[in-house]
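Notes continue from the previous slide.

Worked example: a multi-chain complex. Inputs as given:
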Amino acid sequence: MADVIKKATRESYGEALAELSGEYPDLIVLDADLAAATKTGIFKKACPERFVDCGIAEANMMGVAAGIASTGKKVFASSFAMFAAGRAFEIVRNSIGYPHLNVKIGATHAGISVGEDGATHQCNEDIALMRTIPGMTIINPADDVEAKAAVKAALDFEGPVYMRFGRLAVPVFNDKETYKFELGKGVQLRDGSDVSIIATGLMVNEALEAADILAGEGISARVINIHTIKPLDRDIIIKAAKETGLIVTAEEHSVIGGLGSAVAEVVTEECPVKVVKVGVNDVFGHSGPAADLLKEFGLCADNIVKKVKEAIA
Amino acid sequence: MTIMEFFGIIYVSNGNFSAAAFRAAFAEEERNDDKAMDQTLKKQLQITACKVRMGIIEGVFNAKSGHPGGSLSIADTLTYLYFHKLHVDPKNPKMADRDRLVLSKGHTAPALYSVLSQRGFFPEEELKTLRKIGARLQGHPDMKHIPGVDMSTGSLGQGISAACGMALSGKLSDESYKVYAILGDGEVEEGQVWEAAMFAAHYKLDNLVAVVDNNGLQIDGKITEVCSPMPITDKFEAFGWHVITMDAHDFDSIEKAFDEAEKVSGQPVAIIQTSTKGKGISFMENQVGWHGSAPNAEQYAQAMDELKAALASLEKEA
């Protein structure tokens, strides 16, 4: 484990935009005074003429993005998840979602792992908000390799996409050489028969660790990575419910309205089995180092193991 | 010759209807700012505006709901823009180099629909389907389904931002189209309008013209009594815009304002138009109650009688 590379997906996002700038000459990137943090600054350095700072005005930025998209250009609008999905929600809904414009929203600093900035900046509600917008695609990549591939897939896709990236450096577990991103397709990373752990974002790596621990205790856990939360890969979830009879979801997001809710909605309709949700339990976060917060809020392999064992017992 | 007959001739002779042809036909009357507009053109615009007002009443009456007051106050401006200023083609509504118009005060969709139908984007008869199930003419503009609508609007404050995006996009790829946004005076109470105002000035969007329809009334009463956004002119000036004022019901004033707007460079332009809510229908003028209610059968008949009489008198003069 000594040579595990760690990288924040916001970094992957900024790099991908810069790397793809030549391939997509009509790509415009907008930010709201956070280019250094969201990492769109990397694109700005590569293509200053196609980077537009909108200042601290996220509502206007989303509208500007809609206007640019209406003229046929590709556009990414970037800010922290709290402001992109939260503050600007109604503009995203009415100016981007309703006319189904080709705007990509690059939302970084999602979840509790924002860390020291505390509750005002820890957005645990963005997936829930974006899921309610008809026609909105939601991608929450798990590591660097997946994040970069997802940015390209989003650019090749026509329609609004909300992309969720993290501030914290997380292990890179996908292999760049063999990885293939398929929009809307869940990825079974590990097979198992006793339980299915369905995870998204930085919780995918925790799910893999949990599966290792559970294997040592004789519990066979399937691990599924859901990078596209909407449209959801219903088939892989129904199959998991049928074949393992128990599902534990894991996400760095509120247990209300996120992946856990989405999975439960499918399972209750198609193949009712027990669904246990690991996530932020309807509380606000607080300041502290990201790694400590993830443990405190149960967003870690140990808590997934605990929840699986409680459910099986 | 009515303006529609004129368009008919252009269409038949060219097989390709274009505003450029219309503009060219009036090119001989190169005016300087002080001189009044060509009288024939002015009369035709007045006639068209009267028909646009009839379409507004027709739509709102049939829908039994909608916003006639603010629709009537922008009828002349929209008529001027769609029949004289905008480079648009009803046969090719998505034409890449077209001028764009964003109705940021989206609740006045009846005016936009009426002028679009007069201009030939869709049949006038369709105005009667306004707000009905299965109709394209949604309560607020829907760019996905209605030919000629450049942006879906309705939630106040949002259209101006989209207009900024269109203008910026044009600048970035060196295109010559212009973008017009129509806002309400109550609408500028929305904070997003000022985010957009800051943005447009910062990026020197001189291909953007925002018209603020200052009819003085919003749902809850006079704008100065509800939560006053005044002085609107000074605010736009302070945000770095070139500000022009005009009389919204005088085509000479309208022409002068938009001609001046075209000459401005390095700054976005705000045209603050003084208008009368409900303009053209005696019992609707300056009545806040007509912001968002439809006439009954009797009121409809009276409104149409008034407009028919106005039209007859205009046509007689022409």
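Summary box: The longest strand of chain A covers residues 246-254. Chain A touches chain B at residues 26, 28, 49-50, 52, 54-55, 57, 59-73, 90-91, 94-95, 98-100 (CB under 8 Å).
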